[in-house]
Amino acid sequence: MPQTADDMDAVAVRTWCSLALEALGREREAINAINVYPVADGDTGTNLYLTVESATQAVEAVFAAHETGTTVPVAADAVRAMAHGALIGARGNSGTILAQLLRGMAGVLADGHDADHLRRALTRAAAAARQAVAHPVEGTVLTVATAAAEAAGRTTDDAGTAAVAQAAYEGARTALEATPGQLAVLGRAGVVDAGGRGLVTVLGSLVEAVSGRAPERTYATVPATVVPAPQDCAEGGPAFEVIYLLEATDGAVDRLRTRLDGLGDSLVVVGGDGLWNVHVHVDDAGAAVEAGVEAGRPYRIRITHFGADRVHPHTEPVQRAVVVVVPGDGLRGLCKEAGATTVLARPGEPPASGELVDAIRRAHAREVVLLPNDAELRHTAAAAAEQARAEGVRVALIPTRAAVQGIAALAVHEPDRSFDEDVVAMTAAAGATRYAELAVAERQSWTMAGICQAGDILGLIDGDVAVIGEDVPETARNVLDRMLAAGGELVTLVLGDDVPDTLADELEEHVREGYLAVDTVVYRGGPPCAPLLIGVE
User: Fold this and answer.
1) Residues 281, 285, 287, 289, CA torsion sign
2) Average pLDDT of span 502-512
3) pLDDT the model gives residue 218
4) Nearest 5 degrees, angle CA 301-CA 304-CA 310?
5) Across all residues in the chain, what is the average pLDDT?
6) pLDDT at 66 (0 to 100)
7) Which of 159, 236, 328, 352 sits a CA distance of 20 to 30 A from 47?
8) How far apart are CA 103 and CA 526, in angstroms?
9) What distance in Å separates the CA atoms of residue 194 and residue 365, rounded to the nearest whole number?
10) Start-to-end C-alpha separation, the chain
């Protein structure tokens, strides 16, 4: 039932999400039909719907947690859940911007839920959304959000929450009608901005949630028959849309923005407090994911190809090879079976760039994917790739930092598809794989997990010591528990030559009993200095 109290409490937030999801469900196809900017791919309505669906599910989870008690969640819990749900479920350019709008509102509404807080929340939301977009464009959802905030700000001090919401809705609707005159592509198509129309729909649901009355929903548009086909607007633009969640620091994200801004367009980075949603349109999707790997831990990576008309000119299948650096003979055999050319990395003797160039030459391929499988080899591998390119070989360097990431990339390698698509798939698989290894401490030293003694078993996750244990099985279980706490679908175990098979059996049982629907695969042939390598996808 619609909320009738003039207040933005937890129930109103829940009602708002439910009504917005219902309204976007009704209008999804109409919004898709007018989607011509920034890419005419006809999915803005769907992306907004999926973003709000995720927000709604998060809010419902908060209420479900209170079902056994006699109280309802406080408003702060509800708005924070709404913002977090939208962040992790954001889809597309408009969905990502909407997630930042909701996050901006939540930052204010968590401190109060009266009319004045709603005014300030709308203002904060509009500012936050503009800051998240690398190059704001007028005539888009950003313009509509700003107009909504300004209209709400003009309400009198004695106006209630419903009046503020109504003013924001009317301001947004007026701004939406003006968008064809602000953005040339909209004017040529004779439509309003699709993302802006979606925001008007969401604000209309806010009015209904706090007042109990649905506002008039009319939109300025023209018949969908005049909307250009996707290829008419897509010509010459980037080939891929890349979206991923990213765990990273603020400083790393600032550097990421600069890197991605140089790779493509439609860049939107939203979030904060260590969790971000990254959206960009690029020609080199692998480089966009690689930038995320450098900044932190990307996951839930989604890469969408915009259509055959936007593919690079190098699309015809050609002879292709994968060159992979492996830490042991066992993995060397596994990679050879998969068709890769291997370079053995001996303990304390990392391969030089000349060895990698020789391996690329031995592959006898016009196109090569290079997997260094070690963060320390990045510059060496980059130098080798550059030399091979000078010799006429097309080389893609995927910055794998561990052997398990290389295994994940190699598992999705398909030489029959285009080079770009193959590199994208392999990069995404590697980036979605967290890695760990067990090592024996050689001396007493300080670590991220405390002081270790010589002979202790160290569990390193993503390169940092996270666990100190007395034996391999116990340490391995603790490392797995830490990694799987963040989720996972597949565990890869690579055993050293001297490790008994019983360890793999114990760890497989541990995963099976503690983590439903998580599969485990086991290989032999890890490096002599590490009893166990672990990957979690």
Assistant:
1) positive
2) 90
3) 64
4) 140
5) 86
6) 77
7) 236
8) 44
9) 45
10) 42
